[in-house]
Design goal:
The chain has 424 residues and is of the alpha/beta class. It contains 13 helices and 18 strands. Strand 2 and strand 3 form a beta hairpin. The chain binds pyridoxal-5'-phosphate (PLP).
């Protein structure tokens, strides 16, 4: 018998705050000890006690092809043999950019960075630099990484000034983050009416995945586009999660609204750290070295990470009906969850967009953060731990999105639904 999860977690707690290097991994909101993962194979992960789980987290989204997908691993190994990093241009960057722009065809130029946080942070700087304005609009419940400006949240109401939601974010900075309600077109309109001349940009998850899965309504997105056009603000779609996940072209597969800037991450790195900012040339060329807006990164465009992204996107692009197949599995899964819950007299609200799915223990449709927060957390905790015991690895929070990979087949979906039948 090797090391137990419990022992590993105790050791980790000596080294890291909360025993982890990113907060949600600690399972704080569901209690218990997080499994320490030894390896992944296709749709499964195995912990260090050799328990096997069907994985619906997939490293929080990147692994749409499942764990250790042969073409990705081969590309990584082949590239690594040639050296890990040069801090100089490689043609791999061109290759990945070409793949991304073949799908996001309304974008003209990209810049690669290493994390989604960096991508959105850069998008804001770009928007502020281009417009010469300071304020940004974000929506309650949307997550855009942990950069200072974006960790601000309102106390209440649409037009209040942002108060920092984390100590360490100066008020002087947070006051430039204006908070609005998701899916509330009138609220956004009011905010612009009051402060439109100072708003550099609107940043939104067009398919919100960080308050649970809450898609934006088409009319709401259209309204934001119109407001940005009327007031000369830049519209940013943060598709770090939804890009190449909800559809090939993310939220743009579900709406005809087109933003000025898109941020991507997660899937485009296939499990290694890659993220990107994309936009029209006229906007993007404001970035250094030809523009004045500074941005840089020692490991940006890292060759090994590019190789993982290229192998992943090639496979995605070459697989016919990929998102339809994944969407059918997601639909089947949430339908199964809902039926199982309802049979027990438990209310469940569900949603899916391509390979993304979500469920809330809630009697009412969830359109915004308040709706999401009104869900029954105690029930989620019970469900989560029962599913984990049955070998189903779900995100340890009701306010996260679940993901289907191509390696999670119909049988595994059936198995998961069967597990759910006795987990409520
Ligand atoms: C994950 C995520 C981020 C942050 O990406 P990191 O790589 O974790 O920094 C930003 N925006 C959205 C929508 C995300 O889902």
């Amino acid at each position: 018998m090797g090391l137990s999860n419990q022992a590993a977690f105790e050791t980790a707690n000596r080294f890291f705050p909360g025993g982890v290097n990113s907060p949600v991994r600690a399972f704080k909101s569901v209690g218990g000890v997080p499994p320490f993962i030894d390896r992944g194979e296709g749709g499964y992960i195995y912990d260090i006690e050799n328990n096997r789980y069907i994985d619906f987290v997939q490293s929080w989204g990147p692994l749409i092809l499942g764990h250790a997908y042969p073409a990705v691993i081969e590309a990584v190994v082949r590239t690594a043999r040639k050296g890990l990093s040069f801090g100089a241009p490689t043609t791999l960057e061109n290759e990945l950019a070409e793949l991304i722009l073949s799908v996001y065809d309304f974008l003209e130029k990209l810049r690669f960075v290493s994390t989604g946080t960096e991508a959105v942070m850069t998008a804001l700087r770009l928007a502020r630099g281009v417009t010469g304005r300071s304020d940004i609009v974000k929506f309650r419940g949307c997550y855009h990484g942990h950069s200072d400006s974006l960790l601000a949240e309102a106390g209440s109401g649409a037009a209040t000034f942002g108060a920092p939601s984390s100590p360490g974010v100066p008020l002087d900075l947070a006051k430039h983050t204006l908070i609005a309600e998701y899916n509330d077109a009138a609220g956004a309109e009011k905010l612009f009416a009051e402060r439109g001349g100072e708003i550099a940009c609107v940043a939104i998850e067009p398919i919100a995945g960080n308050m649970g899965l809450v898609p934006a309504e088409e009319s709401f997105l259209r309204g934001l586009r119109a407001l940005c056009d009327r007031y000369g603000a830049i519209l940013i779609f943060d598709e770090v999660m939804s890009g190449f996940r909800a559809a090939k072209n993310g939220a743009c597969g579900f709406t005809r609204v087109r933003p000025d800037i898109v941020t991507l991450g997660k899937v485009i790195g296939g499990g290694l750290p890659v993220a990107a900012i994309g936009g029209k040339q006229a906007v993007m060329d404001h970035l250094s070295p030809i523009g004045k807006i500074y941005q840089a990164g020692t490991l940006s465009g890292n060759p090994v990470a590019m190789a993982a992204g290229i192998a992943t996107l090639r496979t995605i692009i070459d697989t016919p009906n990929l998102y339809e197949t994944l969407g059918a599995r997601a639909a089947k899964l949430v339908r199964g969850f809902k039926e199982a819950a309802n049979d027990r007299g438990v209310a469940l609200e569900t949603a899916f967009r391509g390979s993304m799915f979500g469920f809330f223990f809630n009697e009412k449709p969830v359109r915004n953060f308040d709706d999401a927060l009104a869900s029954d957390s105690a029930r989620f905790v019970k469900f989560h731990s029962a599913m984990l015991k049955k070998g189903v690895y779900l995100a340890p929070s009701q306010f996260e999105t679940g993901f289907i990979s191509i390696a999670v087949n119909d049988e595994m979906i059936d198995e998961t639904i069967a597990a759910a039948r006795s987990a409520y």
